[in-house]
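cron nightly-structures :: item 1 of 1
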Amino acid sequence: MSRMVYCGEVPIGGGAPIPIQSMTNTDTRNVAATVDQIKRLSDAGCDIVRCAIPDMEAAEAFSSIKKQVKVPLVADIHFDYRLAVMAIKNGADKVRINPGNIGEKDRVKAVIDAARERKIPIRIGVNSGSLEKEILEKYKGVTAEGLAESALRNIKLIEDMDFNDIVVSLKSSDVKLNYQAHRLIFGKMDHPIHIGITEAGTIESGKAKSAIGIGALLLEGIGDTVRVSLTGDPINEVHFAKEILKALNLRKSAINFVSCPTCGRCSVDLAKITEEVETALKPLEKEMGKKEMPSVTVAVMGCEVNGPGEAREADIGVACGKGKGLIFQHGEIKKTVKEEDIAKELILYLKQERSLI
């Protein structure tokens, strides 16, 4: 098990629940826009938010941003160590650096000393696009071995400065290479690992890469905090990260929604029914989560082959026939309803069961 560090009040590693991270895509110098996006990310369920600090104006704006939000903030720094020192001074809860592009050892030490004084962790970020020149030459390009060597080398650099509040990340847009690199460092150090697939792509293409890359690592027990990287509104990153963690039973879900893919035996418009049910469940899930209610499984099944069994196993479910649906509650048949009433009746039973009406 990895050691635990804290980003603000959020624990990372040591068996703590896996926090979801994302990154603002606003100009950090635009305080109002950045604060607004951070609040939206937090409302969506993001536990830690990272902001790019490309220049001193952004580092100075970080102070104003920090005062207006509650979620822990990470300052993302490249090249100029002075930006990291300023961001730490202005309230960063964690700083992300790549020691390889910060420069001389004394510059890295200046960042470490500032973090030590403020008692915040450092995230060592190693990406396939920013490997040290000598490593690229040694391995003749980007390889899993090169990523792992760079990460372990930078970890040692900081450990030798008597600093151990470290989070490690090594990312590639190549899913298999990313997986192999993590396997190479896992067990060779005890620092928590931040996982993700960098530059995964758009919502359409990036979801598949992220689900496979992140899911595979988590199933191996690798990963203490996670970010899904998708082009566009970062709110989408948070929603999809939550889905990945829920699918692996690593994050509690108030509602587990199950529906069949349909086949030629289906005699109802199951796509329409499931869309109606899923849309109606979203506000209920949020309400149940706030009240910390026990989770519930809702199943919508399209035909008589597996439908009755699956629906009966759910807390509330429906097995559909020709133009109608048989509604179950905890294995007991409740009623038969017309196709157009299925979604409404399922939601009604759920509300009654959870005293939401």
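cron nightly-structures :: done
The mean pLDDT is 91.
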